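Discussion board: Methods & Data

I've been asked by a reviewer to show the raw model output for two of the constructs in my manuscript, not just the figures. I'm not sure how much to include, so I'm pasting the format here to get opinions. Each protein appears as its amino acid sequence followed by a line of discrete structure tokens. Is this the kind of thing reviewers expect to see in a supplement, or should I convert it first? Here is construct A:
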Amino acid sequence: MSEGTSRGAREGTSEDTRADSRFFGQPWALAHIFGVEMWERFSFYGMQGILLIYMYYTVADGGLGIDERVATGIVGAYGGTVYLCTILGAWLADRVLGSERVLFFSAIVIMCGHLALALLPSVWGLGVGLVLVAVGSGGLKANATAVVGTLYRRGDPRRDAGFSIFYLGINLGAFLGPLITGLLQTSVGFHWGFGAAAVGMAIGLVQYSFGRRALPAAARAVADPLPRNRYAVMAGIAVAGIVVAAALVLLGIIRADNLAGVVIIVILAAAIAYFIVIIASRHITADERSRVIGFIPLFIVNVGFWSLYQQQFTVLTIYSDKRLNRELFGWEMPVSWVNSINPIFIIILSGVFAAIWTKLAARQPSAPVKFALGAIIMGGAFLLFLPWANGAANSTPLLAIVGILLVFTVAELFISPPGLSVTTKLAPERFHTQMVALYFLSVALGTSLAGWLAGFYNPDDEVPYFTVLGLIAAALGVALWLAAKPVLALMRGVR
């Protein structure tokens, strides 16, 4: 691929696409990525809404009867593995297939994973299903974001607003998924809920199949093609990795009760290795190297943020099951419906935030300041649990959780859409999709930590848990705010 072609693939698309504004002021191609991501999030969050209780509910109640602490660790490890698999998806995109093709094939794998959860019995269905969904979601995540990035040239002021609209699609699916799967779980059983997740992904796949041709050629570009004579070597490495992982499981070295810790170590090692590889590369310029170094503080704060935020699927699920008053006019709403509260606020507020960033344009806060505010607000959200700490069973009013999740949402909108956007702006030309994967590694590490930290949650003594984690997150945010100017200097013109 010529240098000009590569630059076009990384920085943007054709002039027609750049000038297109048919989708709420954004390129029309954004609508196709919006759609497939919405249905993927429907299936992902629909399944995740009932996953933890499926594991720790008794067999008599339709669950698997797994120990609660082990179950939270599995959920955290699974969530971390989803984001860890973005490395595989990014590598395949940059070296073999291009982002658009990896996105399409990943959607198929996700659908197969949900079918396994719906149709295969016991822990076998759980294992096969979670592995397939993790691999597929990892491939789709980094590449959907990267494809959105190809719709804009560098400096396009619509970029942050476009990512906020993309994020709206994510949360529309995240809102609907737990409602449908939770209702099916309480009325006809867990496997029907998992089946609904499979149907949702199938709808997204069909929709995307009709619209994928409208995406720009840049979305299918392979940034750094792998030489044909290295295909066999890479395939051998992949098979060896699978064999080693299987052996570790069979030998009992990797177990359900230590899975979260293993995943945390693997993700941390992968992140460090990734930073070293990119920074040490001879194929990036001095400015690009400085920008990657400037990304490190954002990475660290993002880990802290997601280690609290992702406890919606661990601690908050247990809290909602046992401590929350879910009575609505004499009817008890499903546990998973609590997971739809945050997406409601995202849907309402994402457009507001997009409008604010567009209105402010160059006057909007820089990425380090946005990250700092997100971490500080997230820490405050955990401190808001304290008035109801150590209460009796079903004593926390639903309105209190609604208010706390509103604060979760504000924190998320300061850090997540801008995080996706700034990552694509800081990415070196030859590591575009892999830089997005590096961003998702921070989310992976935070998600795995959320599952591990949940093992320390004690409903009988909640004050230390919420206080310590809330203050740590706030301190991380304050530290980044104080360091905003030197971080911006490293980012070399990117805000």
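Construct B, same format:
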Amino acid sequence: MCLIGLLGDVSVTSRRRTTIQNRIKCCLFDHSRRKQQDSRCFHHSSHQVSFNSDTMFSSSFLRLILLLCLLSSSFSSTASSSNSIAADQTLRPQEELLKLKLIRQELDKINKPAVKTIQSPDGDVIACVSTHQQPAFDHPLLQGQRPMDPPEIPEGYKKDDESYEEDSQLWSLSGESCPEGTIPIRRTTEQDMLRASSVSGFGRKIRRVRRDSTNNGHEHAVGYVTGRQYYGAKASINVWSPRVTSQYEFSLSQIWVIAGSFTHDLNTIEAGWQISPELYGDTYPRFFTYWTSDAYRTTGCYNLLCSGFVQTNRRIAIGAAISPRSSYKGGQFDISLLIWKDPKHGHWWLQFGSGALVGYWPAFLFTHLKQHGSMIQFGGEIVNNRPGGSHTTTQMGSGHFAGEGFGKASYFRNLQIVDWDNTLIPVSNLKILADHPNCYDIRGGTNRVWGNYFYYGGPGKNPRCP
């Protein structure tokens, strides 16, 4: 069975591509009749889609197709009609064609035309996209609009001199930047989407995430406050490179602004750093955002992978790798994040580092968060897929328990909330919770320099966490 056979003619200009085209044409299969054509070269089926050289698949994909062609040839020489049907059911080329078509459509929506592209040292391609053409403005309520002006900073805000500036991302080390009137967006590739469990699930948290131990594999070590109205939060988050042992697991550290119940009407705004091999294809810690207004069911996404978050900054790429990172018994680095509700327009703004506004989540995206949050949460989260029936060895934070302290365990420091009058105040009555403390734990404290803080994390599977 040959997938490319269903794609039809490939229009190319070079002799090399023409050769590939001819080889592919010799591997077509007539599904409507379910019988072999000429043994040397099949006729085209009716499922033809013409595409130009600028949409050619990657070389690795072509190698896969040629392998499938060889398998098809070997089947055709010996298989009976019943075996042909079984092979067809196994490879399901029509389903694969549909998936590839959906991937192309989704990439067209996500990857907007670039004014300039920048190659990052980690392999990312950063596209400088006109601000008004970013994915957010695909939303019906934002079409034709321009980004909002910067809001009023919460009273009591002080720059954190120890925290990262916006040049802490790997792509910016190239020395290039995006021009005025554009924003940097990490290019999404075909390979990124093929790693996802489904095209519709790409860039989304599929499972609901709760703040207790009934999370379908999601485990947390967090500090949280509840019981009043919250209009934002701020913290400095220690950055590490924890080990993530499965493509379908992740490890993250973030701030949550939460409203609604932990059922169908959950509203969240989230920002921090994460390692997600499925989403990014590597194990770099990356700056990320997320939002949902219905408990991760149909709304929201990571970063700029759907219409929602409006970016205003041309020097920070959401989803880009962070550098440098902390090391065990070595240098410690953290990022300062501030999320707050603009008292004038009601949008939720995000600030990175010492004063760099990244952008905002429009208020109309939400139900409960149109007014305020009912809980603020700080901390770490991992996904445990229980490989081999035992706990994962995916790490949280630094991969070390909270009791090891500074330089060894990961931390959050200077925990603050934004009050009803747009004032930053220290967190009070902070509660701490670890879903599985033998795997990942948390310890809080207060001092004059760090204010409210906690250490958290762990190695996952160990003698006390089988």
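Answer (T.O., handling editor elsewhere):
This is acceptable in a supplement if you add a one-line summary per construct. For B, something like: Residues 59-78 form the longest helix (20 residues).
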